[in-house]
Q: What sequence folds into this?
């Protein structure tokens, strides 16, 4: 089964509304030219509505970087799935390592968010990955498999592989310039696909997209994207400039 590659920009806490407008205007024609690649932009809440408005009827998938799993209520500072759908948002990053490490999101919370995104009709991009210490201690797979299993446990039986995206993002490679080798990235992502096959069967495993994230840049993207199980990239730093992100889209197509 051919999986459609995805190249996703995670702007993190960057860009004003004006900057988001300029970027989106430049990205729309480039996304239209991208043969067979899903192009997603994960914007801060403050400009996500504007990105979604501009992206309507375009090939750009508008997304945000976080949300909460309740629909409404006393959750000060949070944003819900119905609020995002109301803006035209289609996708959401769940469990980014910065949310887990800086804001204390647990595996339990990440799993609930992933399941809620799917049941609301938002496409979750669920991030998993190990720290340098965990990798050096030989515990990479224990950490990553635990994170994946917790998410899958929470999903309804009816959820298909096309309803969710995973991103393997080794924490030591995020924003450090230190990319995993294409072989290490393939090894981890191949194992994740194997685990999903055990947990949810062949059809799910073959249709689910698994991205790599961690210091992807135009110079290393093609080699990473060429790996058998890698279906695209989640990109922070190198996505902030639309020209450099457009080069990464080309590498995925
Ligand atoms: C990310 O934010 O998910 C990420 C991979 O960042 P960077 O590309 O800057 O390492």
A:
């Amino acid at each position: 089964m051919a999986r459609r590659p995805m190249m996703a920009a995670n702007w993190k806490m960057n860009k004003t509304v004006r900057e988001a407008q300029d970027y989106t205007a430049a990205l729309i024609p480039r996304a239209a030219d991208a043969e067979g690649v899903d192009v997603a932009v994960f914007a801060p809440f403050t400009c996500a509505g504007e990105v979604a408005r501009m992206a309507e009827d375009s090939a750009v998938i508008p997304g945000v970087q976080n949300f909460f799993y309740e629909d409404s209520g006393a959750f000060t500072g949070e944003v819900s799935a119905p609020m995002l759908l109301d803006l035209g948002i289609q996708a959401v990053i769940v469990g980014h390592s910065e949310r887990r490490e800086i804001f204390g999101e647990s595996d339990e919370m990440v799993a609930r968010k992933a399941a809620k995104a799917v049941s609301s009709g938002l496409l979750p991009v669920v991030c998993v990955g190990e720290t340098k210490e965990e990798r050096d201690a030989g515990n990479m797979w224990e950490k990553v498999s635990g994170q994946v299993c917790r998410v899958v446990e929470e999903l309804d039986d009816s959820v298909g592989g096309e309803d969710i995206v995973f991103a393997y993002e080794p924490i030591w490679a995020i924003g450090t310039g230190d990319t995993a080798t294409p072989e290490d990235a393939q090894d981890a992502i191949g194992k994740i696909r194997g685990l999903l096959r055990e947990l949810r069967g062949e059809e799910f495993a073959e249709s689910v997209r698994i991205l790599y994230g961690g210091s992807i840049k135009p110079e290393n993207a093609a080699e990473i994207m060429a790996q058998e199980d890698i279906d695209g990239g989640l990109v922070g730093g190198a996505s902030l400039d639309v020209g450099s992100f457009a080069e990464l889209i080309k590498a995925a197509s």
